[in-house]
Specification:
7% strand, AAA+_ATPase, DNA replication, nucleotide-binding, 2 domains, ATP-binding, five-stranded parallel β-sheet, elongated, Rossmann fold, transmembrane helix, alpha/beta, Zinc Finger, Delta Prime, domain 3
């Protein structure tokens, strides 16, 4: 197991390695170039950043703030609020209005108000905010950050310049990941890196959080350790399940998958159960527990890679969607597991 870095810090790596300058950002070059030009020409408009989590929205506006203001000015010129905590109309009419209406202590320049997670704001709060944006434009600039643009009222959208932050690509994530691995002196395998990138879905924050969690838990970042840390089924688990669903009897499919779902609970309770079933269960016996929701997600991706007749593929996808919906609203996993096995048994009958 590797020793921890000599530098004493309790910061999560997400914050420790957050870019401090616009030039340090690893993606969205066109957006960065445009914002840099706005700042250089002193023409910064109100901004609206939207897109999936972990794609650099907050890091970008904080880097902009550091370029606009010195460290001595920062606290008095920047108001950063997380709208998921402060999202009511009273906050808009109180703290935000007070900050926006107060003049700066410097001869020139404007204040900056950052509203993170703004899609959690109520409609009343958003409607109150639109008048403040218009009235105090000479004194303040707003940056509204959200994941879902549709949850921001059109009146606010029209007052801001919108930038979409898409998921990061592998080529963008990998260099920063390699830099952090080198800085922290970590033992990371190539399949471990690939697992981190696959599970992240373009979310750099998730990459770093899973990397740090896996390293602290196991001392080495391998594919198996990464999947075990997040409780996600390994690719080999999904392959085994697909093999059972297409080739084994109904009873064996159900028992094998059910056992894989219960392994973690059994291990936690330290219960020893002797099962006289076939070798498939014995092979998965020592593996981590699996969630039916995760199995459904991976199965959907897996079966799309297999060449099926259109009618069978459509039928399978519809049934998987129905099962996932029922699981999400709290239906019994045991019943839905039966439905999953039945869906594939039906597909086998149609094919034959």
């Amino acid at each position: 197991m590797n020793s921890k870095p000599t530098q004493s810090t309790n910061l999560p790596w997400v914050e420790k390695y957050r870019p401090k300058k616009l030039d340090d950002l690893i993606s969205h070059e066109e957006i960065i170039k445009t914002i840099n030009k706005f700042i250089d020409e002193n023409l910064l408009p109100h901004l609206l950043f939207y897109g999936p989590p972990g794609t650099g929205k907050t890091s970008t506006i904080l880097a902009c703030a550091r370029k606009l203001y010195t460290s001595a000015q920062f606290n008095s010129m920047v108001l950063e609020m997380n709208a998921s905590d402060d999202r009511g109309i009273n906050i808009v009419r109180g703290q935000i209005l007070s900050f926006a209406s107060t003049g700066t202590m410097y001869k020139s320049g404007f204040k900056l108000i950052i509203l993170d997670e703004a899609d959690a704001m109520t409609n009343d709060a958003q409607n109150a905010l639109r008048r403040i944006i218009e009235k105090y434009t000479d004194n303040v600039r707003f940056c509204i950050i959200c994941n879902y643009l549709s949850k921001i009222i059109p009146a606010l959208q029209s007052r801001c310049t919108k930038f979409r932050f898409g998921p990061l690509s592998i080529d963008q994530i990998l260099p920063r990941l390699d830099t952090i691995i080198k800085e922290e002196n970590l033992n990371v395998t190539e399949d471990g890196k690939q697992a981190l990138i696959t599970l992240s879905g373009g979310d750099m924050r998730k990459v770093l959080n899973v990397l740090q969690s896996t390293w602290l838990a196991f001392g080495a970042v391998t594919e198996e350790n990464v999947y075990s840390c997040v409780g996600h089924p390994l690719p080999i688990d999904i392959k085994n399940i697909v093999n059972w669903l297409f080739n084994e009897s109904y009873e064996l499919c159900y028992c094998s998958i059910l056992f894989s779902l219960l392994v973690q609970i059994i291990a936690c309770l330290q219960i020893i159960i002797f099962l006289n079933t076939c070798s498939e269960i014995q092979d998965i016996k020592l593996k981590k527990g699996l969630a039916l929701q995760d199995i459904l997600t991976e199965l959907h991706l897996f079966i799309n890679k297999i060449e099926f007749p259109d009618s069978i593929l459509i039928d399978l996808i519809i049934k998987l969607a129905e099962i996932e919906k029922r699981v999400s609203i709290g239906c019994s996993e045991a019943v839905q597991l039966n439905a999953l096995v039945s869906a594939f048994q039906n597909a086998r009958d149609i094919e034959t």
